[in-house]
Amino acid sequence: ADEALYLMGEAQLAKKQPERAASTWQRLVESYPKSRFNVDAAMRAATLYGELDRPDDGRRLLERSNHASASAPQRARLFRMQADLARASGDWPAALYALALTRRDTSDATQLAELDAEIGELVDGRLREPDLDALARKLPHGPVSDRVNLELATRALARSDAAKARAALDRLPSQLSEADAATRDRLLARASDRAG
Fold first, then answer.
1. Which of 59, 54, 56 is nearest to 42 (CA)?
2. Does the predicted TM-score (pTM) go above 0.85?
3. In b/e form, how buried is each residue of 150-165, taking b as 16+ CB within 10 angstroms?
4. pLDDT band at 196 (very low <50, low <70, confident <90, very high)
5. Cα distance between residue 170 and residue 152, in whole Å
6. Which is nearest to 154 in space by CA: 143, 165, 141?
7. Are 152 and 133 in contact (CB under 8 A)?
8. Please, how many CA atoms are within 13 Å of residue 50, restricted to the half-sphere of its CB?
């Protein structure tokens, strides 16, 4: 039954019926969560929803997919698609969260550098401090979480709030990249100067 739905979606797409294909693949995702076609159907339907200017429908479907059973590269593609659909909806916090998950499942150095640039653009230019603060508590530990906490500390110090800066810096792990460690040390010194 699940394979029949998957093939029906392909046939509908071949007949230039993208809405019907997306709906059929959505039915597969919702009715057969353990299907080997589940993640692929979710991604194909979400792509169509994005093309049909319905990014929120695509995001909801991807969230319901069985991504835990997918391989790391497939999860990275799924989370990347979630980030793109969140951007299309103007949901910058959701985009950053999905990019953090994409980064976690990506191993290619070139792709990581591209992700880091996109993450930097969101953290530095798109996200407001309350959004960053909420994300800091739910992001998976790693470079994106570190970047968010360093930005929170920077913004807190810009308005002379040493206590908030120190709280953000205290959430950082002891082991950071060389550049992040240097930034943390510089911000800690500034926080100490402001506090004391």
1. 59
2. yes
3. bbbbbbbbeeebbebb
4. low
5. 11
6. 165
7. yes
8. 18
